[in-house]
Amino acid sequence: MTKTISHKTNKYDGIITNFWFTPNNYGAILSAYAIQQFFAEEGLDCVLLNYNIHNWKESFAQDFKQTYLKLTHKINSISDLKDLNNCTDLFIAGTDQVFRYEYIRKVLPVYTLAYTNLNKKRIAFSASFGTDSFNTKYKYVRYFFKKCLQRFDAVSVREASGIKLCKENFNLDVQNILDPVFLINKTYWDKLAEKASIDVNNKIVSYILDETEEVSQIYDFLKTKYKKDVIKLLDTEKTPEEFLSSIRDSEYFITDSFHGVCFALIFNKKVICLVNESRGGSRFENLIQKFGIDSIFYKNFQEIKSCDNLFKTPDTEHIQAVITKERTFARDWLKNKVNSPKKLTFLVCINEIIFKILYFIYRWYYSLKFEIPLAIREWKRELKYTARLKKLLNQTKKSKIVFWGASLFLKKFLSKNNLKDKNILGIVDMDSEKRGLNYGGYTVYSPVELAKLKPDYVIFTIRNNHEEIYQSVQSYLVENYTSTELLPDIFKK
After folding, report:
1. Does residue 7 carry a pLDDT above 70?
2. Total domain count for the chain?
3. How far is the C-alpha of 486 from the C-alpha of 474, rounded, in Å?
4. I want to staple 280 with a disulfide (CB 3.0 to 4.6 A). Which of 130, 223, 303, 439 is the partner?
5. 149 lies in a domain?
6. 136: cis peptide before it, omega within 30°?
7. Can you tell me the distance from the alpha carbon of 390 to that of 215, in angstroms, rounded to the nearest whole number?
8. Sign of the CA dihedral 303, 305, 307, 310?
9. ∠458-464-467 over CA atoms, to 5°?
10. What is the dihedral of CA 266, 268, 272, 273, to 10 degrees?
């Protein structure tokens, strides 16, 4: 593909916005990998937007991210997004449920690319609404979303239901393109799967996102019927490579996940799918229409129990023919949309002025609706945590104290409170880069130096992921420093 929209001054050929950072979401990170590879095969060096909007824990698939994903420089706020206009002329929204209002309502400008300049090219590639309706009761938000989509140079949606949704809600003609996990060659997935060593041979592998009592009944039924163990992929955190390997090497596969079904088709597996309406049942309809696989879907245990031939042998030749056809169509569509000239007519410019006014109003609406209430809630939480910390310090003022965690919360606390009358020995932190630093007047030490410090009490001061980290600190102290007591978690609800 000729990169006609790129310039030597640009840092990236294109920037892709999706949910690659979502915790424990194999579909999100693997579809992000796929769309990046798909664009690369077409000659475009596109990167993923590095903006963890929800500040979700990033331990999931860290090695995979560092090895296989190409990201922009880190973006810290919505206001920083404007600077990306200096980095590229092409912005892509997709794939996955990037247009599902329930998921993006607090960050609408990010996924609708509202922050991009008029002269930039905007393409939605295999974007999903997740359901067959746009669920918001606010007419202004619906209108603003409509104006955002109308700024796109081209829109393709992952589900056929999205075509009708866009026409009826936004007066927009769009194209249906399969999820990118289908659009790259199977050898990509085989190579990733081969990097994992996990034994699921002769077993039923389960990737069920929402476990229920009914699901447990299904497991028991399948164990008895097929005399095979059930391996649940979500029992322990697995790498994306292990996820792929488990599906590929399974005897049978059961899932309620859209991408679970996708990879079952790619690997030609015998699969059954529980339709998970709460996560968007319409997502499966496109797969049924494209591949003719309605017989693998079940609504409940009763339907499964009453079926004699559950795990049917897939029609591999038909499935591969569909994938090849869809891949060719997607490539042709993408080439056409990327290489077509950017149209800046007088009417487009007028509409852009109107859009900018709407965007300004939306920012005020967003601030009043979300940012100000969020700031108030955060202020109240800070007051509560600060009061709890002061109470612990007052209760132990004659004892030797060590803070665990050179956190931002502790830094703010130390800057606002004089603790000279307290017997504070210092701060311990697992981060080697912080050790030896002066943090609010106190030295940061390694946890092993607790033996030298000999505190009576440890006060835990890490707010992010506090429940998990607090438990690990507690276990560490029990194993190594029995004479030191860990005081209650001040961040616990």
Report:
1. no
2. 3
3. 7
4. 130
5. yes
6. no
7. 47
8. positive
9. 65
10. 10
- The answer to whether 445 and 425 are in contact (CB under 8 A) is no
CA gap 76, 148 in Å, rounded = 22
The pTM score is: 0.74
Q: How far apart are the first and last CA of the chain?
A: 54
| CA neighbor of 27 nearest in space, from 256, 333, 227, 281 | 256
Amino acid 71 reads: L
Say whether both 150 and 100 belong to one domain: yes
| pLDDT mean across residues, the chain | 89
The answer to whether residue 372 is domain-embedded is no
Asked if 256 and 232 touch (Cβ cutoff 8 Å), the reply is no
Task: Print the SS3 string covering the chain.
Answer: CCCCCCCCCCCCCEEEECCCCCCCCHHHHHHHHHHHHHHHHCCCCEEECCCCCCCCCCCCCHHHHHHHCCECCCCCCHHHHHHHHHCCCEEEECCECCCCHHHHHHHHHHHCCCCCCCCCEEEEEEECCCCCCCCCCCHHHHHHHHHHHHCCCEEEECCCHHHHHHHHHHCCCCEECCCHHHCCCHHHHHHHHCCCCCCCCCCEEEECCCCCHHHHHHHHHHHHHHCCCEEEHHHCCCCHHHHHHHHHCCCEEEECCHHHHHHHHHCCCCEEEECCHHHCCHHHHHHHHHHCCHHHEECCHHHHHCCCCCCCCCCHHHHHHHHHHHHHHHHHHHHHHHHCCCCCCHHHHHHHHHHHHHHHHHHHHHHHHHHHHHHHHHHHHHHHHHHHHHHHHHHCCCCEEEEECCCHHHHHHHHHCCCCCCEEEEEECCCHHHCCCEECCEEEECHHHHHHHCCCEEEECCCCCHHHHHHHHHHHHHHHCCCCEECCCCCCC
Query: Could you tell me the residue range of the domain that residue 90 belongs to?
Result: 14-183+327-344
Quick one: which of 183, 187, 165, 182 has its CA closest to 174? 165
Q: Would you put residue 239 in left (φ > 0), alpha (ψ -120 to 50) or beta?
A: beta
Residue 174 and residue 193 in one domain: no
How many CB atoms neighbour CB 263 within 10 A? 26
Q: Are residues 272 and 294 in the same domain?
A: yes
Confidence of residue 420 (pLDDT cuts 50, 70, 90): confident
Which percentage of the chain shows pLDDT scores above 70? 96
Contact 429, 405 (CB under 8 A): yes
Mean pLDDT lowest among 44-48, 277-281, 374-378: 277-281
The reply to whether 170 falls in a domain is yes
Cα 440 to Cα 461: distance, rounded to the nearest angstrom = 14
List all residues 6 or more positions away from 294 whose beta carbon is below 8 Å from its beta carbon.
Answer: 288
Percent of the chain's residues with pLDDT above 90: 63
